Amino acid sequence: MSESVSGRRVWVTGHRGMLGAAMVRRLEGTGAELLLAGRSELDLTRQSDVYKWAKENKPELVFHIGAKVGGIHANATLPGDFLRENLLIQTNVMDAAFQAGVKKLVFVASNCTYPTRAELPIKESSQLTGALDESIRSYAISKIAGIEMCRAYKLQYGADFVAVIPPNLYGPGDNYHPEHSHVVAGILRRVHEAKISGAESFVVWGDGTPRRELLHVDDLADAMLHLMNRQTDWLYNIGYGTDLAISEIAALVAEVVGYKGAIVYDKSKPNGTMKKLLDSSRINQLGWFAKKDPKLGLKEAYADFLSQLNQPERSRLG
Ligand SMILES: NC(=O)c1ccc[n+]([C@@H]2O[C@H](COP(=O)([O-])OP(=O)(O)OC[C@H]3O[C@@H](n4cnc5c(N)ncnc54)[C@H](OP(=O)(O)O)[C@@H]3O)[C@@H](O)[C@H]2O)c1
Protein backbone atom coordinates (compact mmCIF):
# COMPACT_ATOMS: atom_id res chain seq x y z
CA MET A 1 0.00 0.00 0.00
CA SER A 2 1.06 3.62 -0.32
CA GLU A 3 0.79 5.59 2.90
CA SER A 4 0.92 9.38 3.14
CA VAL A 5 2.44 10.52 6.42
CA SER A 6 0.26 13.63 6.68
CA GLY A 7 -1.92 13.54 9.79
CA ARG A 8 -0.54 10.07 10.69
CA ARG A 9 1.13 8.94 13.90
CA VAL A 10 4.68 8.18 12.73
CA TRP A 11 7.19 6.36 14.97
CA VAL A 12 10.86 7.01 14.16
CA THR A 13 13.18 4.74 16.17
CA GLY A 14 16.77 5.85 16.81
CA HIS A 15 15.80 9.49 16.20
CA ARG A 16 18.89 10.85 18.00
CA GLY A 17 21.28 9.00 15.70
CA MET A 18 22.64 10.23 12.36
CA LEU A 19 19.95 8.73 10.10
CA GLY A 20 17.12 9.02 12.64
CA ALA A 21 17.76 12.76 13.00
CA ALA A 22 17.82 13.08 9.18
CA MET A 23 14.46 11.27 9.05
CA VAL A 24 13.00 13.68 11.61
CA ARG A 25 14.33 16.64 9.55
CA ARG A 26 12.78 15.16 6.38
CA LEU A 27 9.40 14.70 8.10
CA GLU A 28 9.27 18.33 9.24
CA GLY A 29 6.50 20.14 7.40
CA THR A 30 4.86 16.94 6.10
CA GLY A 31 2.04 17.08 8.67
CA ALA A 32 3.19 13.83 10.31
CA GLU A 33 2.61 13.50 14.05
CA LEU A 34 5.98 12.27 15.27
CA LEU A 35 6.27 9.64 17.99
CA LEU A 36 9.81 9.74 19.36
CA ALA A 37 11.29 7.94 22.37
CA GLY A 38 15.03 7.94 23.03
CA ARG A 39 16.86 5.09 24.72
CA SER A 40 16.41 6.59 28.21
CA GLU A 41 12.60 6.50 27.78
CA LEU A 42 12.40 3.25 25.83
CA ASP A 43 15.20 0.71 25.59
CA LEU A 44 14.30 -1.15 22.40
CA THR A 45 15.99 -4.36 23.60
CA ARG A 46 13.36 -4.67 26.38
CA GLN A 47 10.52 -6.67 24.88
CA SER A 48 7.67 -5.95 27.31
CA ASP A 49 8.48 -2.20 27.39
CA VAL A 50 8.41 -2.00 23.58
CA TYR A 51 5.04 -3.82 23.31
CA LYS A 52 3.56 -1.63 26.07
CA TRP A 53 4.86 1.57 24.42
CA ALA A 54 3.47 0.59 20.99
CA LYS A 55 0.07 -0.36 22.47
CA GLU A 56 -0.18 2.94 24.34
CA ASN A 57 1.15 5.21 21.58
CA LYS A 58 -0.62 3.54 18.63
CA PRO A 59 1.79 4.30 15.79
CA GLU A 60 0.30 4.05 12.30
CA LEU A 61 3.54 4.17 10.31
CA VAL A 62 7.10 3.28 11.39
CA PHE A 63 10.59 4.15 10.21
CA HIS A 64 12.67 1.59 12.08
CA ILE A 65 16.19 3.02 12.19
CA GLY A 66 17.50 2.40 15.74
CA ALA A 67 20.20 -0.28 15.95
CA LYS A 68 23.61 -1.01 17.42
CA VAL A 69 25.93 0.48 14.80
CA GLY A 70 29.72 0.61 14.54
CA GLY A 71 32.76 0.35 12.31
CA ILE A 72 35.12 -2.57 11.65
CA HIS A 73 36.90 -2.35 15.02
CA ALA A 74 33.65 -2.37 17.05
CA ASN A 75 32.28 -5.23 14.97
CA ALA A 76 35.48 -7.25 15.34
CA THR A 77 35.56 -6.89 19.13
CA LEU A 78 31.84 -6.99 20.05
CA PRO A 79 30.18 -9.48 17.62
CA GLY A 80 27.98 -11.01 20.34
CA ASP A 81 26.60 -7.60 21.33
CA PHE A 82 25.88 -6.66 17.69
CA LEU A 83 24.04 -9.93 17.05
CA ARG A 84 22.03 -10.00 20.31
CA GLU A 85 21.05 -6.33 20.49
CA ASN A 86 20.04 -5.98 16.85
CA LEU A 87 18.04 -9.23 16.84
CA LEU A 88 16.24 -8.09 20.01
CA ILE A 89 15.64 -4.51 18.83
CA GLN A 90 14.27 -5.33 15.39
CA THR A 91 12.17 -8.31 16.52
CA ASN A 92 10.63 -6.25 19.32
CA VAL A 93 9.95 -3.19 17.14
CA MET A 94 8.61 -5.06 14.12
CA ASP A 95 6.36 -7.46 16.02
CA ALA A 96 5.12 -4.78 18.46
CA ALA A 97 4.31 -2.58 15.44
CA PHE A 98 2.49 -5.47 13.76
CA GLN A 99 0.53 -6.29 16.95
CA ALA A 100 -0.38 -2.60 17.33
CA GLY A 101 -1.91 -2.61 13.80
CA VAL A 102 0.75 -0.47 12.06
CA LYS A 103 -0.11 0.14 8.38
CA LYS A 104 3.43 0.27 6.99
CA LEU A 105 7.01 -0.07 8.29
CA VAL A 106 10.33 0.77 6.63
CA PHE A 107 13.36 -1.04 8.12
CA VAL A 108 17.00 -0.07 7.51
CA ALA A 109 19.37 -2.96 6.76
CA SER A 110 22.91 -2.68 5.35
CA ASN A 111 24.95 -3.54 2.25
CA CYS A 112 27.07 -5.92 4.37
CA THR A 113 24.13 -8.36 4.11
CA TYR A 114 25.33 -9.12 0.55
CA PRO A 115 27.88 -11.85 -0.10
CA THR A 116 31.43 -10.56 -0.58
CA ARG A 117 31.51 -12.08 -4.08
CA ALA A 118 28.10 -10.84 -5.24
CA GLU A 119 27.98 -9.88 -8.92
CA LEU A 120 28.42 -6.12 -9.46
CA PRO A 121 26.49 -3.88 -9.38
CA ILE A 122 24.75 -5.78 -6.57
CA LYS A 123 21.09 -6.54 -7.15
CA GLU A 124 18.55 -7.34 -4.42
CA SER A 125 18.40 -10.89 -5.84
CA SER A 126 22.00 -11.47 -4.60
CA GLN A 127 20.73 -11.80 -1.02
CA LEU A 128 21.64 -15.21 0.50
CA THR A 129 23.71 -16.36 -2.48
CA GLY A 130 27.14 -16.66 -0.83
CA ALA A 131 29.51 -16.16 2.09
CA LEU A 132 29.58 -12.89 4.04
CA ASP A 133 32.50 -10.65 5.00
CA GLU A 134 33.92 -12.37 8.13
CA SER A 135 34.79 -9.08 9.84
CA ILE A 136 31.16 -7.97 10.06
CA ARG A 137 29.34 -11.30 9.93
CA SER A 138 27.37 -11.11 13.22
CA TYR A 139 25.97 -7.63 12.45
CA ALA A 140 25.19 -8.73 8.87
CA ILE A 141 23.34 -11.84 10.03
CA SER A 142 21.21 -9.74 12.43
CA LYS A 143 20.29 -7.42 9.52
CA ILE A 144 19.56 -10.40 7.23
CA ALA A 145 17.13 -11.66 9.92
CA GLY A 146 15.44 -8.22 9.85
CA ILE A 147 15.11 -8.32 6.05
CA GLU A 148 13.67 -11.82 6.30
CA MET A 149 11.20 -10.61 8.92
CA CYS A 150 9.87 -8.04 6.42
CA ARG A 151 9.49 -10.77 3.79
CA ALA A 152 8.03 -13.39 6.15
CA TYR A 153 5.51 -11.01 7.80
CA LYS A 154 4.40 -9.87 4.35
CA LEU A 155 4.04 -13.48 3.14
CA GLN A 156 2.30 -14.90 6.19
CA TYR A 157 0.33 -11.94 7.57
CA GLY A 158 0.15 -9.51 4.62
CA ALA A 159 2.12 -6.93 6.69
CA ASP A 160 3.35 -4.00 4.59
CA PHE A 161 6.97 -4.12 5.77
CA VAL A 162 9.82 -3.02 3.51
CA ALA A 163 13.59 -3.28 4.06
CA VAL A 164 16.09 -0.87 2.53
CA ILE A 165 19.79 -1.47 1.86
CA PRO A 166 22.01 1.63 1.81
CA PRO A 167 25.76 1.76 1.07
CA ASN A 168 28.16 3.72 3.34
CA LEU A 169 26.32 6.63 4.93
CA TYR A 170 27.74 10.00 5.93
CA GLY A 171 26.41 13.41 6.90
CA PRO A 172 25.47 15.60 9.86
CA GLY A 173 25.36 13.80 13.21
CA ASP A 174 27.88 11.13 12.18
CA ASN A 175 29.86 9.24 14.79
CA TYR A 176 33.53 10.36 14.77
CA HIS A 177 34.64 8.06 17.58
CA PRO A 178 38.20 6.77 16.83
CA GLU A 179 37.10 3.12 17.20
CA HIS A 180 33.41 3.21 16.25
CA SER A 181 33.32 5.43 13.16
CA HIS A 182 32.63 4.41 9.53
CA VAL A 183 34.87 5.13 6.54
CA VAL A 184 34.02 8.81 5.82
CA ALA A 185 33.83 9.95 9.46
CA GLY A 186 37.10 8.13 10.24
CA ILE A 187 39.00 9.71 7.32
CA LEU A 188 37.49 13.12 8.04
CA ARG A 189 38.60 13.09 11.65
CA ARG A 190 42.12 11.88 10.89
CA VAL A 191 42.64 14.42 8.07
CA HIS A 192 41.42 17.22 10.37
CA GLU A 193 43.81 16.06 13.12
CA ALA A 194 46.69 15.90 10.61
CA LYS A 195 45.91 19.47 9.54
CA ILE A 196 45.73 20.80 13.12
CA SER A 197 48.94 19.05 14.21
CA GLY A 198 50.75 20.21 11.06
CA ALA A 199 51.59 16.61 10.08
CA GLU A 200 53.37 16.33 6.72
CA SER A 201 51.38 13.28 5.70
CA PHE A 202 48.20 11.44 6.46
CA VAL A 203 48.03 7.62 6.44
CA VAL A 204 45.18 5.66 4.84
CA TRP A 205 44.92 1.90 5.38
CA GLY A 206 45.33 -0.29 2.29
CA ASP A 207 46.45 0.78 -1.18
CA GLY A 208 43.60 3.25 -1.83
CA THR A 209 42.11 1.27 -4.74
CA PRO A 210 39.00 -0.27 -3.09
CA ARG A 211 35.86 1.56 -4.19
CA ARG A 212 33.01 2.67 -1.91
CA GLU A 213 29.58 4.06 -2.70
CA LEU A 214 28.74 6.98 -0.40
CA LEU A 215 25.19 8.13 0.33
CA HIS A 216 24.29 11.26 2.26
CA VAL A 217 21.83 10.53 5.12
CA ASP A 218 19.41 13.17 3.84
CA ASP A 219 19.15 11.24 0.56
CA LEU A 220 18.39 8.00 2.42
CA ALA A 221 15.73 9.68 4.59
CA ASP A 222 14.16 11.10 1.42
CA ALA A 223 14.15 7.64 -0.22
CA MET A 224 12.54 6.06 2.86
CA LEU A 225 9.74 8.63 2.78
CA HIS A 226 9.38 8.00 -0.98
CA LEU A 227 8.85 4.29 -0.28
CA MET A 228 6.42 4.99 2.56
CA ASN A 229 4.35 7.08 0.13
CA ARG A 230 4.22 4.40 -2.55
CA GLN A 231 3.08 0.87 -3.16
CA THR A 232 6.21 -1.22 -2.68
CA ASP A 233 7.73 -4.66 -2.68
CA TRP A 234 9.67 -5.75 0.46
CA LEU A 235 13.34 -4.99 -0.45
CA TYR A 236 15.12 -2.07 -2.15
CA ASN A 237 18.73 -1.02 -2.60
CA ILE A 238 19.15 2.73 -2.07
CA GLY A 239 22.44 3.93 -3.47
CA TYR A 240 24.02 7.04 -4.96
CA GLY A 241 24.60 5.20 -8.24
CA THR A 242 28.38 5.60 -8.58
CA ASP A 243 31.32 4.78 -6.33
CA LEU A 244 34.68 6.39 -5.56
CA ALA A 245 38.11 4.86 -4.90
CA ILE A 246 39.25 5.28 -1.27
CA SER A 247 42.09 7.41 -2.72
CA GLU A 248 39.50 9.71 -4.34
CA ILE A 249 37.52 9.92 -1.07
CA ALA A 250 40.71 10.77 0.86
CA ALA A 251 41.65 13.46 -1.72
CA LEU A 252 38.13 14.97 -1.60
CA VAL A 253 38.17 15.04 2.21
CA ALA A 254 41.65 16.64 2.20
CA GLU A 255 40.37 19.32 -0.20
CA VAL A 256 37.26 19.99 1.92
CA VAL A 257 39.29 20.12 5.16
CA GLY A 258 42.01 22.26 3.53
CA TYR A 259 44.80 19.79 4.30
CA LYS A 260 47.86 20.36 2.10
CA GLY A 261 50.04 17.43 3.21
CA ALA A 262 50.59 14.12 1.41
CA ILE A 263 48.28 11.11 1.51
CA VAL A 264 50.30 7.96 2.23
CA TYR A 265 48.92 4.44 1.73
CA ASP A 266 49.82 1.74 4.27
CA LYS A 267 49.80 -1.28 1.97
CA SER A 268 50.56 -3.64 4.87
CA LYS A 269 46.96 -3.09 6.07
CA PRO A 270 44.02 -4.96 4.47
CA ASN A 271 42.04 -3.42 1.62
CA GLY A 272 38.73 -5.04 2.56
CA THR A 273 36.14 -5.74 -0.15
CA MET A 274 37.32 -4.15 -3.40
CA LYS A 275 33.91 -3.07 -4.75
CA LYS A 276 30.40 -2.93 -3.32
CA LEU A 277 28.41 -0.78 -5.76
CA LEU A 278 24.64 -1.32 -5.42
CA ASP A 279 22.24 -1.65 -8.32
CA SER A 280 19.53 0.85 -7.34
CA SER A 281 17.44 0.47 -10.49
CA ARG A 282 14.40 -0.87 -8.62
CA ILE A 283 13.96 2.30 -6.54
CA ASN A 284 14.96 4.42 -9.57
CA GLN A 285 12.01 2.82 -11.39
CA LEU A 286 9.77 4.16 -8.60
CA GLY A 287 10.99 7.67 -9.52
CA TRP A 288 13.62 8.19 -6.79
CA PHE A 289 17.25 9.21 -7.42
CA ALA A 290 19.94 10.41 -4.97
CA LYS A 291 20.62 14.15 -5.21
CA LYS A 292 23.51 15.07 -2.94
CA ASP A 293 26.86 15.29 -4.71
CA PRO A 294 29.59 13.82 -2.43
CA LYS A 295 31.76 16.97 -2.55
CA LEU A 296 28.91 19.17 -1.37
CA GLY A 297 27.82 16.51 1.12
CA LEU A 298 31.36 16.22 2.53
CA LYS A 299 31.50 19.99 3.03
CA GLU A 300 28.34 19.72 5.16
CA ALA A 301 29.77 16.74 7.04
CA TYR A 302 32.95 18.69 7.85
CA ALA A 303 30.92 21.70 9.03
CA ASP A 304 29.02 19.29 11.32
CA PHE A 305 32.30 17.81 12.62
CA LEU A 306 33.58 21.30 13.47
CA SER A 307 30.32 22.16 15.22
CA GLN A 308 30.57 18.93 17.25
CA LEU A 309 34.06 20.05 18.35
CA ASN A 310 32.48 23.26 19.62
CA GLN A 311 29.49 21.61 21.31
CA PRO A 312 30.79 18.82 23.59
CA GLU A 313 27.23 18.12 24.83
CA ARG A 314 26.14 16.81 21.37
CA SER A 315 29.52 15.51 20.34
CA ARG A 316 30.17 11.95 19.07
CA LEU A 317 33.93 12.38 18.99
CA GLY A 318 34.70 9.78 21.65
N1 LIG B 1 26.06 4.60 9.30
C1 LIG B 1 26.14 3.81 8.23
O1 LIG B 1 27.07 3.91 7.41
C2 LIG B 1 25.06 2.79 7.96
C3 LIG B 1 25.17 2.00 6.81
C4 LIG B 1 24.17 1.06 6.55
C5 LIG B 1 23.09 0.94 7.41
N2 LIG B 1 23.01 1.69 8.53
C6 LIG B 1 21.83 1.51 9.41
O2 LIG B 1 21.18 2.76 9.54
C7 LIG B 1 20.58 2.85 10.84
C8 LIG B 1 21.02 4.14 11.52
O3 LIG B 1 22.44 4.19 11.58
P1 LIG B 1 23.18 5.48 12.13
O4 LIG B 1 24.49 5.56 11.43
O5 LIG B 1 22.26 6.64 12.14
O6 LIG B 1 23.50 5.01 13.62
P2 LIG B 1 23.61 5.86 14.95
O7 LIG B 1 23.93 7.27 14.63
O8 LIG B 1 24.53 5.11 15.84
O9 LIG B 1 22.14 5.81 15.54
C9 LIG B 1 21.58 4.63 16.07
C10 LIG B 1 20.45 5.02 16.98
O10 LIG B 1 19.86 3.81 17.54
C11 LIG B 1 19.66 4.03 18.92
N3 LIG B 1 19.68 2.79 19.69
C12 LIG B 1 20.65 1.84 19.66
N4 LIG B 1 20.34 0.88 20.56
C13 LIG B 1 19.17 1.26 21.15
C14 LIG B 1 18.36 0.69 22.17
N5 LIG B 1 18.68 -0.47 22.76
N6 LIG B 1 17.22 1.35 22.53
C15 LIG B 1 16.90 2.53 21.97
N7 LIG B 1 17.63 3.13 21.00
C16 LIG B 1 18.76 2.48 20.61
C17 LIG B 1 20.82 4.93 19.34
O11 LIG B 1 20.50 5.53 20.56
P3 LIG B 1 21.66 6.20 21.48
O12 LIG B 1 21.87 7.54 20.83
O13 LIG B 1 21.05 6.28 22.82
O14 LIG B 1 22.85 5.29 21.38
C18 LIG B 1 20.87 5.90 18.16
O15 LIG B 1 19.94 6.93 18.32
C19 LIG B 1 20.98 1.58 11.59
O16 LIG B 1 19.92 0.66 11.51
C20 LIG B 1 22.19 1.09 10.82
O17 LIG B 1 22.33 -0.30 10.94
C21 LIG B 1 23.96 2.64 8.82
TrEMBL record:
Source organism, top-level taxon: Bacteria
The job of this chain, per UniProt, is described as:
Catalyzes the two-step NADP-dependent conversion of GDP-4-dehydro-6-deoxy-D-mannose to GDP-fucose, involving an epimerase and a reductase reaction.
Which classification does the entry list for the species? Bacteria, Pseudomonadati, Pseudomonadota, Betaproteobacteria, Rhodocyclales
Q: Which Gene3D superfamilies match?
A: NAD(P)-binding Rossmann-like Domain, UDP-galactose 4-epimerase, domain 1
Name of the featured protein: GDP-L-fucose synthase
Pathway participation: Nucleotide-sugar biosynthesis; GDP-L-fucose biosynthesis via de novo pathway; GDP-L-fucose from GDP-alpha-D-mannose: step 2/2
Q: Which family does it belong to?
A: Belongs to the NAD(P)-dependent epimerase/dehydratase family. Fucose synthase subfamily.
Q: Where is the NAD-dependent epimerase/dehydratase domain?
A: 11-239
